[in-house]
Amino acid sequence: MEEGRLIIKRSSEEQTVRALHGTTRSILNNNVLGVSQGFNKVLEIDGVGYRAEMDGKNLVIYVGFSHPVTVEPPDGINFSADAKTRQININGYDKELVGQVAADIRKIRPPEPYKGKGIHYLGERLRHKAGKSAKTARVN
Prior knowledge:
Layout: H1 15-36, E1 39-46, E2 51-55, E3 58-62, E4 69-71, E5 77-82, E6 87-92, H2 95-108, E7 118-121
Antiparallel strand pairs: 1-6, 1-7, 2-3, 3-4, 5-6
């Protein structure tokens, strides 16, 4: 720590030491950014009748199952759900944990390739497949 800045110096110029130097710098930078600004992931829900709502701190997701799916936030994670835009915001100070929680929520109902219904990241490009109509009927 020098003059209010963290300075990372290498002990040698070996390849593994140089690689770990960059990794260490990046982890420390993410820790500082997480405490000062925080990290955010936004998930979007597409599909008729699919929605998410808050129940206290817990997130309740309705995505076509016979039951609602309740997700409890781990320590350091906050959820917020917007019913109009059908978006789920995941906030926290740990970048890895925010990404993992977002991936776990997306895994509840990943987007299907024909209509795109499901949970996906905001701005994620989905590949759509042609359905049965792509196959032409044979007439004798």
